[in-house]
Amino acid sequence: MDLPVADPGTERGEGPLIQCPYCDSEAMHKLAQLLLPGLAAVCVDGTTGDLFRKPSVVAVELRKEMVDYITQRSDTFIADALIESEANQEPENEMPEDPFEIVSIFMDDFSSTKRNIIGHVSGWLLSDNREDKIDDFVQEMEMTRFWPLDRREAIAEVLLKNVDIKTKFHCPEKYENEERLADHKEQCSFRPVTCPNDGCRAKVSVRCMDAHDAACPFKVLQCEQNCDKRLLRRDMDRHCVTVCPMRPMKCPFGCDSSFAERDLENHCLEFLQAHLLKVLKVIHKKGRSEEELKELAQKLEKYDEHGKLAKAQDARPLTNAVKDLEAKMKGEPSS
């Protein structure tokens, strides 16, 4: 399939102007990603209910037709938009300025011309079954590399330049000769550069590099919870929730304290008496007053030669340690 060619520019002076070829790499990639599900929708709607035709059978033919259609629409888009703007003064009738919305409209218009009888039924167009079939066919085309991304990006580049009225996503500059163009390209804010973060293969325009870097999953960052670990942005959430020593936690004994996980040991040591009282109240539910339990807690802590009580970091091991110590204090064999 022949790829469409971008307009080289209008004439000025003695010859045609040469337009800067650069455009927003991420916008071009995003637009290219719209094309595959758009084609899948056309193929599914055109063959639904037909026992002898499957989406894959008509994909080659409809791909060419769709590309020709949306390219031709994009070629005349700016002129058509100006004419329509003059004819329709109401704001609600104005054409959109977002290139992605514009190309989506083109694809929807093309799709409507290829739907069979079932495809025209509104119930089908809104059904979950239709969406499932479209998703399945998109995956099939991706697995078979029916329409590789680089081929779609070449088409998306032309579409983007044709419909980007506000020149937000492509460079509008044009020059009389290659020398002046070459000078401009070295400074063009739309020129593509590779992300410097190790492992990231993304190519983005210079003007978008800060935004990309602020979200790049391969950016190495200091831990958000201020531990001494540096890690990839894509690993940050998992680190902070699972292994970060600074992740917040509540006291496992039920007191109202909150602290970083790495401070659990210090907390257990500092509030050992309070934790002992909670455990003793459970062990000795009846027959002991508050003062008696406090006195018992102090005795247990003094009798604990090996510091087992302070090392217990939740209720179960502390309860076991208390029972062992009480048994030894009474001269009974440990359970």
From TrEMBL:
A zinc finger (TRAF-type) spans 211-265. GO terms for molecular function: zinc ion binding. InterPro entries: Znf_RING/FYVE/PHD, Znf_TRAF. Keywords: Coiled coil, Metal-binding, Zinc, Zinc-finger. It comes from the Eukaryota. Pfam families: zf-TRAF (PF02176). Residues 286-313 form a coiled coil. Residues 211-265 form the TRAF-type domain. This is TRAF-type domain-containing protein. It comes from Panicum virgatum (Blackwell switchgrass).
